[in-house]
User: Fold this.
Amino acid sequence: MDNMTHALAGLLMADATISSIERRTGAPITRGVRATAVILGIAAAEFPDADLLYSGELLGMGKLGYLLHHRGHTHTIVFALIIAFALWGLVQLVRRDTRDPLIRAPMLWLALGGTLSHLLLDFTNSYGVHPFWPFENSWYYGDAIFIVEPWLWVAAIPALLFGPRRVVGRVLLSLALVGVLALAWMVDMVPSDVATILTIGAALSLIAARYTAPRHRVALATGLWLSVEVFGFAMSRAASHVVAEEMRLREPNATLVDVVLTSAAANPLCQNAIVIDVQNDAYRVHTATVAAVPELRSALRCEGSIRDVLANGSDGLARSSRAVGASESSLAGVRWRDEWTGSRSELQALAATHCEFAAALEFMRVPVWRRDATGGVQLSDLRYGLYDNGFASVRFAAVPRECPGFVPGWEPPRGDVIGGG
Assistant:
């Protein structure tokens, strides 16, 4: 998720902690303890992204280091617990007034909730996390929430605005809410009817927060936040079912391997799908626009906003493969766009002979590749663009180079294809 969403989650937990301390002590807390709770909540909610400080060039691995180490070890439950206790211990060290047993325990829960919330939020999108290292190294993907989801801001900011804030905090939160609504109206990826509903939702959320008792405001925001998450997951599962049924009819002899879903911004009724299947030695990747509930919004109506989501170049597979023109599916919930076909045995051979290539496959959920005139290979993860237009694209020389160090050993997402199973 984006860092603003993580910060909002930390702020909500900080306000809940402040309310808990006041109930436990029977008196308003000091301004210093209040500020400490806010800082601790945001720091804990943001800290797992500290891996950005060392992933990449610092490890001497270039882009491969970023791909393998962002959302790496700091995004695991083990490190989340270590980070939480370290931040809590630092607070105890520098703030004597937090050592009171009635304050100390809520602060610990705040630190734990903050770091773990980061993992949970990052799980909700298609980038994924592998939280159970070192006991289990598989990736887990929620495929449910857009990377910057305006509805989460609409759920959280109104309650925070009417919470225990200083003027500066209220101004910054107000600007964030106005900014996300303005963007919804300005960018093409959010249709005007969706922007209208989002704006009405923000107004209703503000009214509800204004007239809700202070002790219930965080609960209101949390309920709205969870409702957004639950609806996103429900639409993702509905879209996945639509795709699976369509593939069963369209490719009855193929084995469906994975369906990668990305919700349209502010509109989980519309999903971008990347579908992977295998048939004998053929490894195929299809792109499609999917309507989770076609009766409410058709795949045809979804196409505009989904194509704007694809501005990073993850479409356009026709440049390296047979194109499949957009067409209505037999279930009227899918419009297919393009298709890429590669050799499963070639992918296995590249992984076996190029240790750099094999290392990259510890991240690549949708690997597609091409060879250049020198025999080198350009590998992309189609979730994030194709070849030169993709931030997750890596080039490898024709002759394998020395194996990179600091390869974490994540379970390759496409082990089901590489392993021949």
Residues 214-250 form the longest helix (37 residues).
